[in-house]
């Protein structure tokens, strides 16, 4: 554990410093589920775009149109499979994260 002299930071008290390792431990425990969620999200986006491109080709439309439509369906506007936290939504709003939490028994 690191120590900060009071002459450098007079407003930091030792009780605050004792909480820092606990906060790091809590974040480290969440890392595997977050990484799994990100990887699963990338796989879902990729598969949806390829599926949309194939459907679009069979209907004689450009494949890019199918990829864009599948992006809208997978994204926040339709099925809520992918949720970005910058927009003020919780990870529990995402279908993928809810499924992962159910599989791991976290809910």
Report what the structure shows.
- The chain has 107 residues and is an all-alpha fold.
- The chain has a domain at 35-104.
- It has 3 helices and no strands.
Topology, pairings included?
Elements: H1 14-58, H2 63-74, H3 95-104
Structural class comes to mainly alpha
Assembly state of the chains shown: single chain
Q: Give, in order, the helices and strands.
A: HHH
Largest sheet entry: none
Strand content: under 5%
Got a strand count?
Answer: 0
Give unreliable regions as ranges.
none
Report the total helices.
3
Radius of gyration (CA) equals 21 Å
Mean pLDDT, all residues: 70
Distance between the termini: 34 Å
Helix content: 55-70%
Shape, please?
elongated
Summarize the structure.
The chain has a domain of 70 residues.
List keywords for this structure.
3 helices; mainly alpha; 107 residues; elongated; 63% helix
């Amino acid at each position: 554990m690191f120590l900060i002299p009071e002459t450098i930071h007079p407003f930091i008290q030792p009780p605050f410093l004792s909480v820092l390792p606990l906060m790091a431990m809590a974040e480290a425990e969440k890392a595997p589920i977050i990484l799994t969620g990100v990887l699963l999200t990338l796989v879902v986006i990729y598969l949806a775009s390829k599926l949309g491109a194939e459907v679009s080709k069979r209907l004689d439309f450009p494949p890019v149109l199918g990829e864009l439509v599948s992006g809208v369906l997978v994204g926040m506007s339709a099925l809520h499979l992918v949720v970005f936290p910058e927009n003020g939504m919780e990870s529990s709003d995402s279908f993928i994260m809810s499924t992962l939490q159910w599989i791991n028994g976290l809910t």
